[in-house]
Amino acid sequence: MQTSKEIVASFSDALASDNDSLAAREGETFRSLFRSQLSSRNAKSSAAISSLYNEVRNRPETWGNLPKYEDAGDEYKPDNSIAAGFSVVTCCMNRNDHLAQSLPTWLVHPEVDEVIIVDWSSRIPVSITLDQAGIQDARIRILRVEDEGTWILSHAYNLGFRAASRDKIIKVDSDIMLDAGFFQLNPTDTARLTAGNWRQAKSGQSHVNGFFVVGRDALLAVNGFNERIVTYGWDDDDLYERLTKAGVQRKDVDPDTIRHIDHSDLRRIEHPKCKPLTGWDEIQTFPQFWIALNRQYASSCAPWDASCPMTAFRVLGDSPRELRLRRSHPYGIDTNLIGTRIERAIAAVSAIEDAFSGVAVTVSPDVVDYALMTRSLKDAVAAISNQSLQPVEETSEVTAPIGHRIDRPRLILDAQHGLGNRLRAIASAYAFAQVQDRELIIQWVRDEHCDCSFDSLFDFDGTVEDSRKSTAEDTVEVDLMNKAFRDAFDPNSLVRTNRDVVIRSAYRFTFGKPYDPIERKFLRTLKPSADVQTLIDSVRSPNDIAVHVRMNGGASTDPHGDVPGEWSRSEDEISRRARSRSHYGYFFKRLDELLEEESTQTIFLASDNSESYGAFNAKYGDRVTSLPRTVYDRSEMQLKFALADVILLSRAPVLLGSNWSSFTEIAHSMSENQRLEISGQHF
């Protein structure tokens, strides 16, 4: 979905073009964006609107196209003449991408007489999306509802049900696709309710529960959806219960005839508009909370039936393409005011116990409410239940939390610089993702620092991307290549957010327990590619002493001269000093001391220059083994040698390493019980 900034820019570009139809279409999207933002009521509304107006102020050519208030006409009253057949009813608010995928699977059925689409103030009007997708069919009728800032399923669908002109209604969400055999394999008479059942659904298809086919008269006799339920959850179960009580026989839809397009639960619920500060902020991102709260709320109110008036709408304009409507009376939602304090606490308990296996809340609702107001969710659960949010499993090697989330947020690690730098950043990201229950995605982009693909080096089962993908508007982005930011960064600042996180780094950012043991285990279990393994197998291994000499870029030269990049002045100076103390001559002195203790010890050498290999071979002869090569650049072949070097370095019980070198750091991290001595520090 386009961001607000992109929509304003697209409209500005369209105005500058000679394409009147493009300008008209982009102008419609521009005005729709403003109307939906002005109708939103949440903690970030004012900031979002201010940002939007700043964008317009910078593009004065768009000023004259800001939306103006429209007087509404008569109340919308659908035609009451009903014919035999099927009306497909769907609603959409910013799910245009899903609708464009699913709509053709509905239209392909000749049994479908009409498709009613209620466009609930989508930023990009549905009519524009369908035009761009080339979807044109006389059976499509669009009811565009303006000035809605919040998705309200019950109000939207009840409008669509009333607009239907056939005696049977197929209620289908915009993310549901119909199979070619749908009508042949399902009963569809007016006296029956054929509905999705999450208990019978296939894996990953539980959200088909909201799909149903029913007679229009039977549906409107129970007054459609309960319009008191204005957030995600329990709306369909409440309706099914009222229909069956009214004598409508329910049958499960054939699960092979409908399919749900997979997407995050955050597109169903009103996800946080700002960083969660308390347990209450976090628990409201759980679908189970809203299901439990709406179930309580519906049962505690007077019955929803035909005596309760549905939401009324007035006509703003009518055209062959769409009917534009607006609510007869303004309606705003503050989700914090839904349910009493005790009802919300009881719903929170239900959500916690449902979402986290083994957790049982042992205190009263009053205590739950206070704990969620004053603590993070993790700390609140520890205080009110029989165990912490993420139960801990003790082993001899590592203490790490175990648990699960309904919808795991992603940690995207954009690995930077050379091989050692990338590996240490990836290992740190892996540990953080394991501990904080995130899905890890590695971005490994070839560049002048590392001119090879990830799969040329590793045989890896995880998710690796070879380019930097665009991310959602609410993604948290962390740039650890900025030294000032890196020095101030605390990974605990990311623990409480449920949003996706992108970290750009060449450095570790997790330290101590439980992260360190997980990082080391991850590095040890990385499986090299077949080419790298062949190199490893070509030399003697293990050896008694491993030596890594990183001396290019000493005090008289640029320590980063082989590749461009940005390093601070202090980092340059530290690197120069470290490399000047990593000349192979310093290693000779320490090696001679070790060989004096045991003269038969063997040596494995890895270096960044041919001079070191020649000097070691001349001094130590057959006791030294190494991987011979002719190039010392950042090419794919050289990086395969480099990875083989790292693994061979890690196998020795003693490693003499170079200071200020991520290569030495990674080799030692891959090892088990290895003694590390650093040039310029230990010798």
UniProtKB/TrEMBL annotation:
Entry-linked InterPro entries: Galactosyl_T_C (IPR027791), Nucleotide-diphossugar_trans (IPR029044)
The organism's place on the tree of life at top rank: Bacteria
Keywords from the UniProt entry: Transferase
Keyword Transferase: yes
Region Disordered, residue ranges: 552-574
Domain Galactosyltransferase C-terminal as annotated: residue spans: 203-263
A GO molecular-function descriptor: transferase activity
Biased composition annotated in UniProt, kind: Basic and acidic residues: 559-574
Name under which the protein is recorded: Galactosyltransferase C-terminal domain-containing protein
Gene source species: Ruegeria profundi
